[in-house]
Amino acid sequence: MGRPCVFVRLSGCNLRCDYCDTRYAWTEGTEMGLEDILGQVGDFACRLVEITGGEPLLQPETPMLIEKLLDHGFQVLLETNGSFDIGQVDGRCVKILDVKCPGSRMADRMDLENLGRLGHGDQLKFVIMDRTDYEYARTLTNSVAGGKIGGDRILFSPVAGCLHPAVLAEWILADRLDVRFQLQLHKVLWPNIERGV
User: Fold this and answer.
1) Of the candidates 116, 119, 54, which has an alpha carbon nearest to the alpha carbon of residue 80?
2) Cβ(168)–Cβ(183) under 8 Å?
3) With contact defined as beta carbons under 8 Å apart, do 93 and 77 qualify?
4) Which neighbouring-strand residues pair with 158?
5) Residues whose CB is less than 8 angstroms from the CB of residue 35 and which lie 6 or more positions away in sequence, other chains included
6) Nearest to 110 by CA among 129, 94, 127, 93
7) What is the rounded distance in angstroms from the CA atom of residue 135 to the CA atom of residue 128?
8) 3-class secondary-structure state, position 145
């Protein structure tokens, strides 16, 4: 958060999280070849690229796109809903595993074996709707991820409009969790713009 970044948002998602704020990505999009995507990304003159969705691993070419971007000198992040094996992704890529909490109504769709596939540079992200989600994230962080991934790579983010950011921050501080609090910065800076920021 806070660094300029080019987003490559891929169409399609196999999940239907209750709080999804990019429902347009479920079906909308323009078909593009890998070279066209590389060209458009290069036009931004920004070396940080995030591949997101929808669910980017629904697209069979995504691992190849990531590899090409890395080979062209980009730092690449992949944000995935965790329902597909992340082991197919180049190890140089930072994988952000968006762990689905109960409030999403998609927690049972996660491939929890992905927790064992994370590398030391990868991140866990928990989008938290309420206290139940917080407890789920806290338990999972403490029992599974804490030893392998440092707190600066475990992200707790409130669902906009559901959980006030200050409440989540208070819970984290009260429990002395070693996690990183995260807001969707673009919603703070440009609250009335849903796309293109």
Assistant:
1) 54
2) no
3) yes
4) 128
5) none
6) 127
7) 9
8) helix
**Amino acid in position 158:** P
- Positions of the chain with pLDDT lower than 50, given as ranges: 197
Cβ burial of 188 (10 Å; 0-12, 13-18, 19+) is exposed
H-state helical runs in 7-125 = 34-42, 62-71, 114-117
pTM given for the model: 0.85
Q: What is the pLDDT of residue 195?
A: 53
pLDDT digits (tens, 9 = 90+) for 97-132: 999 999 988 888 888 899 889 888 899 999 999 999
3-class state of residue 167 by DSSP: helix
37-46: long-range contacts (C-beta < 8 A, 24 or more apart)? 37/8, 37/65, 38/68, 38/69, 38/72, 41/6, 41/8, 41/69, 41/74, 42/72, 44/6, 46/4, 46/5, 46/6
